[in-house]
Amino acid sequence: MERVLRDIISEGCTRIYCVHLSSKLSAFYNVMKSVTERLKEEFPSVTFRVIDTKQLSIGAGYVLLKLMEAVKDGREDLEKVVQEVNERIKIRFSVLEFDYLMKSGRVKTIKECSEIS
């Protein structure tokens, strides 16, 4: 990703928005934060914004559309935009197999969930 950002900078971009899937489900957000911190030192005139959509799938796409509108309108409070959009999003899904989700640690076992509630 650092190479991609360097290419974008070499094209003359001075504001870079990196919009990612939920940081709770992917390490990519944290990786990008680290990369942009390094690049900020080398390119102080470039503004980097790394944004966690706190969503997956179509929810992340919807957040991205709203962020694009906000940037176009000149808004700077992008984290607030994400929060406002997420307050309105309700996504439900179903899966055929839970085994892989549990093995990956993405979801708790049914026993753990019943102990929490």
Could you explain how this protein is built, in words?
- This protein is mainly alpha-helical.
- It has one domain: Rossmann fold (3-Layer(aba) Sandwich).
- 55% of the residues lie in helices and 10% in strands.
- The chain has six helices and two strands; from the N terminus they run H-E-H-E-H-H-H-H.
- Strands 1-2 form a two-stranded parallel ribbon.
- The longest helix has 16 residues.
- The radius of gyration is 17 Å and the shape is globular.
- The mean pLDDT is 87.
Are there runs of 5+ residues with pLDDT below 50, and where?
none
CATH architecture: 3-Layer(aba) Sandwich
Helix percentage range: 40-55%
CATH topology: Rossmann fold
The general outline is globular
Number of strands: 2
Pfam family, one: DegV
GO molecular function: lipid binding
Protein name: DegV family protein
Organism: Thermotoga petrophila (strain ATCC BAA-488 / DSM 13995 / JCM 10881 / RKU-1)
Task: Give structural attributes.
mainly alpha, globular, 117 residues, two-stranded parallel ribbon, 55% helix, Rossmann fold
Produce the secondary structure layout.
Elements: H1 2-10, E1 15-20, H2 28-42, E2 47-52, H3 57-72, H4 78-88, H5 99-104, H6 110-116
Parallel strand pairs: 1-2
